Amino acid sequence: MMNHILVPLHDHEERYGMFRASGRSMAPKVMLGIIWTLLPFILLFEILRLEWYGVGLLLIVGISGLRYLLAVRAGWYGSVWVITNERVIDVTKKGFAKPVLTSVLWADVKEVKLASKTICIETKTKVPMTLVLVGVKKPTLVMNLISEVQSRCAK
Questions:
Q1: 1 — pLDDT class (breaks 50, 70, 90)
Q2: SS3 category, 120
Q3: What's the CATH code of the domain at 133?
């Protein structure tokens, strides 16, 4: 499951699950990208009246819309939560940029909240932070796994 996402694990660390936002949570951005990409082709005859300027405009708008769609997909596919026996790892990727890894040990977890397909993990570290996973496909499954792993690590 999603083996191509490289997450650095410690020597005796076991991965219990990898979760990402559902595809439905990305629907508004995908629809914007589809409209942005197809609009020049819908208005093809009007744009071609501009001759070479129209062809240039058609290519620029169409290619930029396609690039936006690919960036949305890369950002969605590259952003995951990894639940291990030692910590929670949050990999956040924006478009084609390099992913940012944030990890929290189970001992530093203060509270885990679930609110309408959004899971928040608050920490009690020196610099408090909140890890958020929005639009989870099966939030109760993720919460059950988190509570099970957290109870194992508390022992």
A1: very low
A2: strand
A3: 2.30.29
